[in-house]
Every structure is written in structure tokens, then in C-alpha cells.
């Protein structure tokens, strides 16, 4: 363990000058004056064991003393060594941590003669890079896709900046750029766990003079793994490999300019052999979103064609459910006109297309409204090329389209509902990148805005849900090993803007079917009832009577068995009925002037026992007499995924605002509508209870047919386009 990996060269310590530490004769110097972070004993023992050597490159005569300081305990000495040399030489001091379990390692130097400790890392070597060895290249922001610079680069110093015009980083003397960012860091945890990449190096397209450092961040803080002197006007390879890099945390580069510098790009390298050849088919399903899909295909197609390694390994197919595109609209893709079988039918068609081709090993499902960095695609390819388990699949994170640095979820698992991982994480913060590496103890599913999976592992196709819940069904019905990875993501519209009575109906019917048909998700009637009641009560109590009625409609259709799904695989009449039931929740645009006139409703009424009991006992105010209800026409709440019944309690009217779409919905208390929905729900619940075991049987028999390739090919060949949905 070299001492210089812990030294922060940006600290203003007089004896520290760039790559050299000068020690005055007769003076003590403690390392913690210029350390990145305290040296935690527990972490050191985990990484290096009880015994390891501290190495330094030096000239002079130095006494090294090391000890452990633990709160509430005596100071314990664990190493001492006197080193002397008239020429530059490497010396070591043995550290023994066997007698301590915790605390902080403190290291001090006494100069018996004037001495110098210096960084002996070799300079970078100018050398061409074999594309086969590149795991992925660094990414840069663009006006077209994402302008959030901290997702790509973070700067220290006023004279450091990124140019959108020529896509280069410019550094003046004493300024720095940090590539320990969402798109340009290296996920040590995931690459160590899921791939054979044991050794890591890096390359830079660089001009100028600088110090480059490989930084490691984990729960124990930040430290330097390696450093290089850069002096180049060309591509340089940092030949000092990081070797057995840590299996925790994330790794990234930090560059300190010693003179004016320009960074053109770079990336990560490995000498590990590939474990499998990867040929990828990208399936994009679209329905009358011509501009979005044309832009996505053009951007991705150009990046693929220009890639030195993957230009012949990736194909794009657009399944056009609206039949409004022509081949000239998407020249970089194969266009398949399709009947409007929803997202489910569209994605199944692209999958079967690539299976029939017979030359593709993997498939990627991607939404037409999901904006994805081409670099996310290429690092996914590298990840799969080095995969240890051939079942490995990748689920891309979703970032907010309107707040591009904010994460909606980095994977999710399902149990009655969707449970997102690391929601609302600010990806500009380096420590959050480490948090984002945390994996769920539950098996996650691959959302179809970005799901990269091996074709040979597909044993069952998705049930004909049309849209919503099909990605959950597909993931849990097949034996995938699903992971996520920092830097593999896409931007999408905020989900709460899509939440309405239609999505309530579509989600709930598919969620119940998951529990009836998927062995991993099988559950009792009691669990199903809790799911249904939880949704119904939330909507009905919150004046969203149309959504509550759609919960009832979903139960009705579930009770009809699997034949309902075949008869309504294009659910034109069903969705018309949903629109009819939810007419009372119709939204309309609002102006900022209108919003300014509204008053934000109380977040919650008091939660002491008596008001809570009254709220529940009165069915959220629906049993209270009219004179107790407050007339508040200007009260406002903000829209979220699930309604908050507390905010409407004892109000005659409230206005729900969607800040993203600038739509408002007027919600009014309606006692008759409330009880109509309630009595219907209870009646349907009784029917579901009586028929529950029989339904489990018929759905399990029905899925044997509906999950087959032949079933889906029949739909592609026989269904007519009835009318616009």
C-alpha cells in the first residue's frame, strides 16, 4: 500500500508540492494533515488483512511510526521503521493490526535528516488502444439529449469548463476535473460481481501536463488507488493497472492540471477475455409518436454505425402499432407494421422477429419515449460480453425527463405493487453513486423502457395485457439474473403525469393476474383482497370516484377468466368504458395566474386518535352531514402517484394540480357516487372469494396457451385493425 494513494494534492500544506512531500530535519509530520479521509481500521483489515506493508519512495533519513487511536481506548502502536538512503529508493514499514478491531490508523514521520517522500508512479504511455479491450468510453453532455454537466463532469476552479461546441474539457493551471460521475465512473461492485473483469486500466485523449488520479469511493470514504504524471499531446494509456481493484464502491478519474490542458475523451480498459459473443437486437414499439421514434432511431443508428467494435453487432427494429411510418422515416432500422396489440404485442413481435432471424444472442426492449445515451447501450454490450452467468440481464434506470439529474428508480421489485429502488436520488452527488450500487434482497424485474436480456433464456412470452404490467410478467416468468448498473439508464416522462383512471384499471388487472399465474408471486385470497381494497379505498375516499369505478371494472374482467384477454387483446370497447367511467376526472389546462389564486391545502389534519377515528368511522367524511363540510373552492393539492385521502377530508371541493403537464382536475365530494362504488366493490369481492380457487385453476390452464410463440404469431397474422384507441 503506497502512502501517496492517501494524499490530497489540492491541500494547502507548505511541505506538499505536487508529487513531493518535503520533511524538515528534526520535525514531525502527521499524514492526516493532507489525507483524503481517515484510515478506518475495519476497512483496512477487510481489504488488506491484519498484516500489510506501507511503502514509500524517499530520499533522506525518516522514522515512520504508526498507531491506532480508538475512541475510549488506549493508543496502540502497530508499526515503526527507520529508513535511510542517499538516492531515490523504495522503503517499507510493516503494519500489524492483529491486536485491534476498530479505530483510526494514524501515521507520522520524523525527519532525522532533511528528506523527501515522492510519488513514483510511472508516467502515462502514448499507445494505441485495441477496441476489443475497451469496456466503455467516457460520455459528454449534449444540447440534444442532456445538458446536466455534473452527470458527466464536475469542475474545481473557475477556469475549468466543458465546451458543448467541440465537446472537449478545458483546464487552466491549478484547475481540476472530476470524472467520478454517474456516466463516467466505474461500478466496481457490479463489474466484480457479474463479470470476469479482474484488472482495470484507463486511457485518455489528452493534451497538456497534469496529475491523473484513480479515486475510489465507498462507505468508508474516499481514497486514491493510483496516480500518473501526464504529459502528452495525444492518446495516452495509463499502463499502471489498477489490478485487483476493490470489489466495493465506485472508481473514477480526477485530473489536476499543472499547465493548460485539454481532455478530448477517454475510457476504461481490461485485458480480460470475453466470455460470450453478443449480437443485439433492439426492439422499439411505437404508436403514433413519429417524431420521437424517428429522432431516437437516427441518433442511435448513427452512434452504432460509428462504433469501432459494435457497428455490425447491433440491429434496430421498430414495431409500428399505428402503421403511420414508412421505411424512409427510420432508415437505420427495420420497420415492421403491426396491428395495435399494445406495448405487449409490439415487444413480443420484435422478440419473435429476432428469434426467427436466429443470429441474435440478446434483445433490448426500449420505449419510443425513452431517451437513452448511446453510451449506455455500448457499456451494456461490454457488460454482457464479460458476463460470468449467461442468464444475466440488465435493467436500465429511469431518470426524470423534466429534472434530468433526478432518478425515478434504479430497478424495482413487485409484490402486490411496484417497489422502486433509490427513488428521487440526486445523481450529481458522488456519494449517491455508491448508494445507487445497493442491490435489493428481492428479485427485481426489468422495466421495458430499457431491458437487455439473453434470448435463449426466454421460455415464456408475456400474457396479452396490451400495456402495463407486461414487463413484470415477462421478467418473473423467465429465469433471468437481473442487475442494474450506474450509467445505464434513460430519461422518461414523470410517471405521476401518466397516472389516471386508465392506468389504474390497466395496472390493477395485470397485478392480480401476476399473483394468479406466476409461481414466484402466488399468494392467498387475503393478499389479493388487501391489494384491491387498498387501491379502491384510496381512490374512492379521495373523491376519485371514476378511478374507484375502474377498480371495480378490473375485478369484473378478472372474474371472466383468460378468455376475456383473448377476446379483448385489442381492448377498444374496454377502454371506451374506462373513459366513460372516469369522465368525472377529466383534466384541463390551467394558467399560472389561476394557480396563484389557489391555496395549498393542509398537508394533513391532526393525527391524534380522535380525529383519526372520526375520519375512518365517517368513511373519510362521506357520512358527515353537509353542514360539517367546508366549502373550499380554491383549495389545492399537488398530484402524486397515489392520492392522499387526508387532504380532501371534510372539503366539498379540491383542485388537483399537475405541475409537469400544467393540468388541473376538479375533485368534488359525491356521497351517492361513493356508496355506489362501495356496494359494487363489496359485491364483486364476495364473488371473487367464492370463485378464487377456480380462477387460479383456469388462469393457470389458460396461460399455457397464451404464453406461447404460436399464440402470438396467430395474433399478428389474424387480428384486424378495428379502430383507433
Provide a brief overview of the structure:
The chain is α+β, with helices and mostly antiparallel strands and 725 residues long. 28% of the residues lie in helices and 29% in strands. It has 4 domains: 3-118, Sandwich (Jelly Rolls); 125-269, Jelly Rolls (Sandwich); 280-493, Spore Coat Polysaccharide Biosynthesis Protein SpsA, Chain A (Alpha-Beta Complex), CATH 3.90.550; 501-676, no CATH class.
Structural class: alpha+beta
Number of helices: 17
What average pLDDT do the residues reach? 89
How many strands appear in the DSSP assignment? Answer: 38
CATH architecture grouping of the largest domain: Alpha-Beta Complex
The number of domains is 4
How would you describe the overall organization of this protein?
This protein is of the alpha+beta class. The chain has four domains: 3-118, Jelly Rolls, CATH 2.60.120; 125-269, Jelly Rolls (Sandwich), CATH 2.60.120; 280-493, Spore Coat Polysaccharide Biosynthesis Protein SpsA, Chain A; 501-676, no CATH class. It is built from 17 helices and 38 strands. Strands 9, 10, 11, 12, 13, 14, 15, 16, 17, 18 and 19 form an eleven-stranded antiparallel sheet that branches. Strands 1, 2, 3, 4, 5, 6, 7 and 8 form an eight-stranded antiparallel sheet that branches. It has a seven-stranded mixed sheet with strand order 22-21-20-23-31-25-32, sandwiched between helices. Strand 20 (280-286), helix 3 (290-306) and strand 21 form a beta-alpha-beta unit. Helix 10 (525-541) packs antiparallel against helix 11 (545-559) and helix 11 packs parallel to helix 16 (671-706). The termini are far apart. The relative contact order is 0.08. The mean pLDDT is 89.
Amino acid at each position: 500500500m503506497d502512502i501517496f494513494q492517501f494524499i490530497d494534492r489540492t491541500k494547502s500544506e507548505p511541505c506538499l508540492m505536487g508529487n513531493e512531500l518535503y520533511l524538515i530535519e528534526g520535525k514531525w509530520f502527521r499524514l492526516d494533515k493532507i489525507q483524503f479521509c481517515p484510515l478506518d481500521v475495519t476497512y483496512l483489515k477487510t481489504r488488506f488483512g491484519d498484516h500489510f506493508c506501507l511503502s514509500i519512495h524517499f530520499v533522506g533519513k525518516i522514522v515512520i511510526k504508526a498507531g491506532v487511536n480508538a475512541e475510549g481506548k488506549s493508543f496502540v502502536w502497530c508499526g515503526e521503521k527507520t529508513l535511510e538512503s542517499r538516492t531515490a529508493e523504495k522503503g517499507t514499514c510493516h503494519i500489524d493490526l492483529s491486536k485491534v478491531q476498530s479505530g483510526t490508523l494514524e501515521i507520522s514521520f520524523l525527519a532525522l535528516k532533511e528528506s523527501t517522500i515522492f510519488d513514483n508512479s510511472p508516467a502515462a504511455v502514448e499507445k494505441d488502444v485495441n477496441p476489443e479491450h475497451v469496456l466503455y468510453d467516457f460520455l459528454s453532455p449534449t444540447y440534444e439529449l442532456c445538458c446536466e454537466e455534473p452527470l458527466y463532469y464536475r469542475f474545481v476552479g473557475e477556469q475549468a469548463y466543458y465546451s458543448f461546441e467541440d465537446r472537449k474539457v478545458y483546464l487552466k493551471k491549478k484547475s481540476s476535473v472530476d470524472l467520478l460521475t454517474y456516466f463516467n465512473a466505474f461500478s466496481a461492485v457490479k463489474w466484480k460481481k457479474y463479470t470476469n473483469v479482474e484488472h482495470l486500466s484507463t486511457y485518455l485523449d489528452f493534451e497538456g501536463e497534469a496529475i491523473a488520479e484513480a479515486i475510489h469511493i465507498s462507505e468508508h470514504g474516499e481514497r486514491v488507488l493510483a496516480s500518473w504524471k501526464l504529459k502528452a499531446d495525444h492518446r495516452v494509456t495509463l499502463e499502471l493497472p489498477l489490478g485487483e481493484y476493490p470489489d466495493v464502491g465506485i472508481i473514477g478519474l480526477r485530473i489536476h492540471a499543472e499547465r493548460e490542458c485539454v481532455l478530448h475523451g477517454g475510457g476504461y480498459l481490461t485485458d480480460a477475455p470475453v466470455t460470450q459473443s453478443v449480437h443485439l437486437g433492439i426492439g422499439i414499439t411505437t404508436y403514433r409518436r413519429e417524431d420521437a421514434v424517428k429522432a431516437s432511431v437516427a441518433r442511435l443508428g448513427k452512434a452504432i454505425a460509428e462504433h469501432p467494435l459494435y457497428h455490425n453487432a447491433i440491429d434496430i427494429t421498430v414495431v409500428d402499432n399505428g402503421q403511420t411510418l414508412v421505411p424512409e422515416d427510420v432508415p437505420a432500422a427495420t420497420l415492421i407494421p403491426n396491428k395495435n396489440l399494445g406495448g405487449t404485442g409490439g415487444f413480443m413481435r420484435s422478440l419473435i422477429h429476432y428469434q426467427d432471424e436466429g443470429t441474435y444472442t440478446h434483445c433490448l426492449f426500449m420505449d419510443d419515449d425513452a431517451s437513452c445515451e448511446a453510451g449506455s447501450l455500448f457499456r451494456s454490450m461490454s457488460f454482457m460480453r464479460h458476463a460470468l452467468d449467461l442468464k444475466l440481464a440488465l435493467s436500465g434506470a429511469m431518470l426524470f425527463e423534466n429534472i434530468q439529474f433526478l432518478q425515478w428508480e434504479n430497478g424495482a421489485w413487485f409484490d402486490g405493487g411496484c417497489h422502486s429502488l433509490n427513488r428521487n436520488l440526486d445523481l450529481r452527488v458522488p456519494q449517491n453513486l455508491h448508494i445507487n450500487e445497493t442491490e435489493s434482497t428481492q428479485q427485481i424485474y426489468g422495466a421495458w423502457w430499457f431491458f437487455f436480456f439473453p434470448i435463449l433464456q426466454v421460455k415464456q412470452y408475456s400474457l396479452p395485457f396490451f400495456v402495463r404490467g407486461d414487463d413484470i410478467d415477462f421478467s418473473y416468468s423467465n429465469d433471468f439474473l437481473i442487475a442494474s448498473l450506474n450509467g445505464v439508464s434513460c430519461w422518461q416522462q414523470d410517471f405521476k403525469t401518466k397516472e389516471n383512471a386508465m392506468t389504474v384499471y390497466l395496472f390493477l388487472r395485470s397485478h392480480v393476474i401476476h399473483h394468479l399465474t406466476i409461481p414466484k408471486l402466488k399468494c392467498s385470497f387475503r393478499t389479493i383482497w388487501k391489494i384491491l381494497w387498498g387501491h379502491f379505498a384510496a381512490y374512492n375516499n379521495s373523491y376519485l370516484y371514476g378511478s374507484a369505478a375502474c377498480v371495480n371494472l378490473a375485478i369484473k374482467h378478472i372474474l371472466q377468466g383468460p378468455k376475456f384477454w383473448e377476446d379483448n387483446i385489442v381492448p377498444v370497447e374496454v377502454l371506451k368504458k374506462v373513459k366513460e367511467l372516469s369522465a368525472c376526472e377529466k383534466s384541463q389546462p390551467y394558467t399560472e395566474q389561476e394557480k396563484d389564486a389557489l391555496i395549498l391545502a393542509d398537508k394533513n389534519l391532526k393525527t391524534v386518535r380522535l380525529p383519526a377515528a372520526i375520519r375512518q368511522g365517517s368513511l373519510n367524511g362521506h357520512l358527515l352531514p353537509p353542514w360539517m363540510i367546508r366549502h373550499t373552492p380554491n383549495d389545492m393539492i399537488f398530484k402524486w402517484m397515489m392520492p392522499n385521502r387526508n387532504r380532501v377530508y371534510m372539503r366539498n371541493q379540491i383542485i388537483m394540480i399537475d405541475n409537469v403537464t400544467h393540468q388541473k382536475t376538479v375533485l368534488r365530494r359525491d356521497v351517492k357516487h361513493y356508496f355506489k362504488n362501495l356496494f359494487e366493490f363489496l359485491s364483486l369481492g364476495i364473488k371473487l372469494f367464492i370463485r378464487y380457487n377456480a380462477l387460479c385453476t383456469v388462469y393457470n390452464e389458460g396461460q399455457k396457451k397464451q404464453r406461447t410463440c404460436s399464440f402470438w404469431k396467430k395474433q399478428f397474422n389474424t387480428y384486424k385493425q378495428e379502430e383507433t384507441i
